[in-house]
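Predict both folds.
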Amino acid sequence: MKIIIVGGSGTIGAHLAQSLKADKHEVIIVGSKSGDYQVDFTKSEQIPGLFEKIGAFDALVVAAGGGYWGDFYSMTEADVYKGIQSKLMGQVNLVLEGKKHINPGGVFVLTSGVLSTEPTFGSNNLTMVNAAVNAFVVSAAIELKNDVRINVVSPGLLEDSIHSFGPVMPGFEPVPAAKVVYGYKKAIFTGISGKIIEVSA
């Protein structure tokens, strides 16, 4: 399969890319500053050119996107839009443009996260946008044509990310990256659609 990974140089994306390459798939890495192609997916005007360069594909995995983390009482409208523009609309716009280029029977795989259902202090923005990504996928699945599928992986706190997020996510049991990779493979290869694949420890 010809598989695009947006965020393929990040923590999740790099592990997934390595595994898919080992399985002899054609893997195309897209990043904001590195990879085979570069795109800032928060700027929707850059996305059509990306797909024109890559051409038709079988699977698009998005393992990228961020948002505001901080005190609820300090959060501003601009802070809220950080998550909306990046983790929500960045992924949504990739699907909206990607559906023009994906092969029949192809699959989109987006990424949300455990915070969608298990918020913690400071996570309001990411909790909101993760839940919105989940809702987008469940709804889009019933309207996609040509046997195109869409799923979302909702991983827990990665072991690789403990140094960054462990202090602000107390009580969240870390998940091995290898287990998260299996979640993405399930989303890509098993024929399911409209599913939220939760990967916890």
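Second protein follows, with its predicted structure tokens after the sequence.
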Amino acid sequence: MYLGRRGANTVAAIFYIVAVTLSFVPFAISIDAAYHFDPVYLAIVLVTDAMLAYVAARLLITTDTRHLDRLRRLSLLAIFIGLMAFLAGAFV
């Protein structure tokens, strides 16, 4: 099955939106006390979520391949910041 540019961008955007949605689970549900209602974790995750939501929106809006490299770098930076949120939530 071949998705094409529009289909591939849509699938990638869906995964980013799912990641944004799931990032609030450790904050809202008491799975681990280190993250439950931790404002440090939430602040850093909100930055990550804003970046990933921007990437998802750009992927849905355009099929131009010129911006994909920049969006890839931005998503990798967002994932790194998200990792820092988990570390900060665990150790701060």
